[in-house]
């Protein structure tokens, strides 16, 4: 191939026996057998075992060479003996008998080993990310990411989409997360912002007369880190379409997701026609608008049981009278679980900030009874009614929580996942997609008691837009939708509001005067005033898609050079101080408060 190698480290097999070859790569592992020294030479493509005898002039060179040094090896391909073959390697039937070695780059003592897949603290992994990425699993994750992005691009083109690039330096957004600001040298005192998403630009592309747009778009948000969200930057598959309705976007995305997930995983997709679940039903049944549909547990509202005279559980009854609700989770055939199982769930709930989870098991012992700490407070008739509401059977157990609506949703949504995990109810070899639809356009701010937008203020409301009842804004639903897979939100999307007059009306409900809208969204309102097609789109997160396909629970495992939890790049030492003359050129002074 060139002076460094005739083959890659994955190429050689028995067809190459007795050929003279040159390989270059990293010294992955070394095994000293006294008169023989075996090394595994690794490059991007694979590993080849090489062997050198102690009478070779290069023996001492390799013997002293540290792991991860870069070598060029020249030698003859030999067939391994039957008992020394390694069928886990593509090259496992051969080895290279070394004639000559050249050290291309000598490695220092490693801060973390590359050989093996042990767990190491995240801080050291991020500081030495270039070493971490040499590890087999991480290397495969990043290769997978590249292949998935290439596949997505090809699929989008097949469906008639064209890729366009939108600006990176733009104006600050008055809505959403915090912007990253970039000072302007030519316009001192003014700032660009890095785009939180290409939202306005992709709508402007539709207004410009293009029909189907997509982009693997970098997005920048000054947000705190989470397992499924990188601080600072991330990538999304941004797409927009003109003259479409919500269902057409669903068809495009479903086709794409099915093709991507079936091409890169052997896991079963539960339904290739993704279920549509209203926001209201999702919150009622799962306590969240990001439900994991692999989990069979369903939340049931059972407040009415605690309004009965024959139920004596006074703690819940008093709370119900004060306006609280009671909701339940039923686990099937758990009567033989030890008391410790239930107590651990109760303790876990308290650790989550809840008052705990009351519980008992339905038993038939000379009549229907509740076995457990609070079972004695229920009559046989009330137990029958409870079983009817929850579709429970004898031998099932029930967990109960009482409180205000939002707190109940919070604790039972996580309890649902905790209990299902403890009972091994979730099939890790399946992908369960769904659409969450019919989001409310507005909601009531619990602190200010004022109406505000609940999701995306630029979405098209549902219903007869010429006769919307703006006196009852909490009843208005929007053409907004989320796509969820295995409890992970991949994206939010919407049919856009392309009618300026309607936008003014909706913003007025949330307390914005016309001049406020004109000031804050001047570019978009102005463009919409010159003839805009009905349009809509969505932007699934690339990082989260790869995370799911790689079977990882943290997005940093599928990102090349992520920041840590404090939005710091430990490898490049960013963010960093800058020189005084740089700030002066930008017309900026930094006021560092003394602690």
User: How far apart are the first and last residues' alpha carbons, in Å?
Assistant: 61 Å
Instruction: Please work out how many helical segments DSSP would assign.
Output: 16
Task: Give the radius of gyration.
Answer: 30 Å
Strand order of the largest sheet: 6-9-10-24-23-22-19-12
Query: What fraction, in percent, of the residue positions are helical?
Result: 25-40%
Oligomeric state of the chains in view: single chain
Q: Provide mean pLDDT, rounded.
A: 94
Shape: globular
Structural class: alpha+beta
Number of strands: 24
Measured by DSSP, the beta-strand proportion falls in: 15-25%
Query: Which stretches are poorly predicted, pLDDT < 50 over at least 5 residues?
Result: none
Describe the structure.
The protein is α+β, with helices and mostly antiparallel strands. About 30% of the residues lie in helices and about 25% in strands. The chain has helices at about 60-65, 120-125, 130, 135-160, 200-205, 245-265, 280-285, 315-320, 340-350, 380-390, 405-420, 500-510, 515-520, 520-530, 540-550, 580-585, and strands spanning about 20-30, 35-40, 45-55, 70-80, 95-105, 160-165, 180-185, 190-195, 210-220, 230-240, 270, 275-280, 300, 325-330, 360-365, 370, 395-405, 430, 435, 440-445, 450-455, 480-485, 490-495, 535-540. A hairpin with a 3-residue loop joins strand 1 and strand 2. Helix 4 (about 135-160) runs antiparallel to helix 6. It is globular.
């Amino acid at each position: 191939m060139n002076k460094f190698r005739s083959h890659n480290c994955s190429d050689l097999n028995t067809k190459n026996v007795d050929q003279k070859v040159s390989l270059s790569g990293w010294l992955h592992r070394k095994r000293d057998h006294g008169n023989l020294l075996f090394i595994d030479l690794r490059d991007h493509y694979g590993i080849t075992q090489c062997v050198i005898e102690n009478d070779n002039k290069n023996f001492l060179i390799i013997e002293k060479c540290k792991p991860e040094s870069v070598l060029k090896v020249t030698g003859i391909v030999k067939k391994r003996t039957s008992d020394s073959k390694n069928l886990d390697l593509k090259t496992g039937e051969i080895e290279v008998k070394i004639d000559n070695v050249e050290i291309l780059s000598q490695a220092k003592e490693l801060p973390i080993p590359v050989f093996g897949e042990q767990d190491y603290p995240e801080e050291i992994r991020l500081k030495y990310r270039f070493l971490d990425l040499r590890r087999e699993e991480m290397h495969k994750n990043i290769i997978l990411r590249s292949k998935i992005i290439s596949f997505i691009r090809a699929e989008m083109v097949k469906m008639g989409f064209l890729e366009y690039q939108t600006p990176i330096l733009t104006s600050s957004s008055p809505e959403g997360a915090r912007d990253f600001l970039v000072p302007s040298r030519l316009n001192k005192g003014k700032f660009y912002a890095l785009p939180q998403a290409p939202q306005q630009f992709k709508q402007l592309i539709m207004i410009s007369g293009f029909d189907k747009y997509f982009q693997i778009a970098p997005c920048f948000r000054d947000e705190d880190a989470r397992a499924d969200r990188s601080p600072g930057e991330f990538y999304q598959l941004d797409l927009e379409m003109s003259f479409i309705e919500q269902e057409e976007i669903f068809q495009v995305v479903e086709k794409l997701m099915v093709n991507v997930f079936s091409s890169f995983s052997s896991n079963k997709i539960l339904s290739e026609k993704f279920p549509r679940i209203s926001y209201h039903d999702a919150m009622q049944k799962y306590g969240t608008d990001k439900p994991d549909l692999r989990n069979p547990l369903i939340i049931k509202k059972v407040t009415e049981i605690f309004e009965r005279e024959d139920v004596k559980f006074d703690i819940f009854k008093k709370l119900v009278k004060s306006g609280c609700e009671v909701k339940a989770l039923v686990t099937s055939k758990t009567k033989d679980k030890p008391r410790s199982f239930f107590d651990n769930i109760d303790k876990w709930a308290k650790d989550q900030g809840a008052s705990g989870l009351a519980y008992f098991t339905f038993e038939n012992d000379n009549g229907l009874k509740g076995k457990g700490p609070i079972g004695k407070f229920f009559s046989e008739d009330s137990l029958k009614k409870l079983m009817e509401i929850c579709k429970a059977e004898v031998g099932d157990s029930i967990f109960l929580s009482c409180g205000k609506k939002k707190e109940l949703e919070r604790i039972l949504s996580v309890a649902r996942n905790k209990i299902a995990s403890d009972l091994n109810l979730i099939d890790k070899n399946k992908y369960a997609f769904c659409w969450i639809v019919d989001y409310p356009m507005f909601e009531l701010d619990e602190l200010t008691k004022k109406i505000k937008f609940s999701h995306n203020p630029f979405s098209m409301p549902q219903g007869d837009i010429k006769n919307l009842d703006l006196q009852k804004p909490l009843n208005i639903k929007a053409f907004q939708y989320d796509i969820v897979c295995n409890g992970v939100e991949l994206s939010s999307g919407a049919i856009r509001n392309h009618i300026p007059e309607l936008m003014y009306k909706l913003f007025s409900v949330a307390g914005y005067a016309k001049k406020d809208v004109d000031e804050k969204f001047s570019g978009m309102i102005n463009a919409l005033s010159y003839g805009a097609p009905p349009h809509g789109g969505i932007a699934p997160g690339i990082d989260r898609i790869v995370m799911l396909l790689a079977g990882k629970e943290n997005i940093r495992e599928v990102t090349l050079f992520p920041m840590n939890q404090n939005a710091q790049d430990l490898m490049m030492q960013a963010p960093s101080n800058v020189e005084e003359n740089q700030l002066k050129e930008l017309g900026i002074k930094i006021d560092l408060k003394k602690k």
